[in-house]
Amino acid sequence: MTQAHAKKGEVIRSYSDLAVHTEVGAIIQHHSENKEDIRLVVRDAVPWNDNTSKVLDLGCGYGWFEEIMPAGLDVVGGIDCLEENEAPFLAAARPKAREVFFFKMMLPARTGLATGRFDLIVSLYSLYFFPDFLSEIVRLLKPGGLFLCLTHSARMLEEGQHYFDFKNLRKVIKRFSAENGHQILRPFFKEISHIDYPNSLIFHTGDEKALAMYIDFKKEFIEKDVDPRIVREKMIAELRRKGKLRFNKNDRIFLAYK
Fold this sequence. Notes:
Blueprint: H1 3-12, H2 18-31, H3 38-45, E1 54-58, E2 73-80, H4 86-93, E3 97-104, E4 118-124, H5 134-140, E5 141-152, H6 167-173, H7 181-185, E6 191-197, E7 200-204, H8 208-217, H9 219-222, H10 228-242, E8 244-248, E9 251-257
Helix pairs in contact: 2-8, 8-10
């Protein structure tokens, strides 16, 4: 394993605890200014029809998107580097499709899947881990197929920059962000559009536990630059001092057609 893969693996380990991931998801939903479920925005952006029946989810995790996908599909496959995600992913995917599969794989890598097999490929909060995989994504899509990816703004959590320099977090997100996504996708796809999802995370006095857990969830990003305990203590102190903290959580959905 290369040093780059090792570092990426450390960050991805923060997604390995399903119970924690689920609880943090609930914290994000509760403290989001935008109350529309981002998964539903993504789902409704897809032109589901008879020509969208074979789906591949990259960085699929535990089936976060599959939980709300429409049923009656032909194939739903997932690729993820964490083997503990296999069982929950397959459990979420089985009610949605006649054929389901899961590959444990650290992307970018050769998948061995047939050229042009998929109508739809999705990458939700994951493409910044493997932007070099785009040529393989294009190969796996049928002519006219859709690649849909959801990503953060490069300014995510920018308010924390007043106190700490999160260079590692910025480095990861800037590999594929809302701001540079069009530029990165353009050489690979014929038609590209996007849907913005404006949002902020807002914490008030009394939300210290939720804020601490959210910061702990990001520790694999943060600890390359500063001890997460210091970040947690500082931000909780600022919350108590100010009574309210707001963090940038703007996202963008890209729809790219082959």
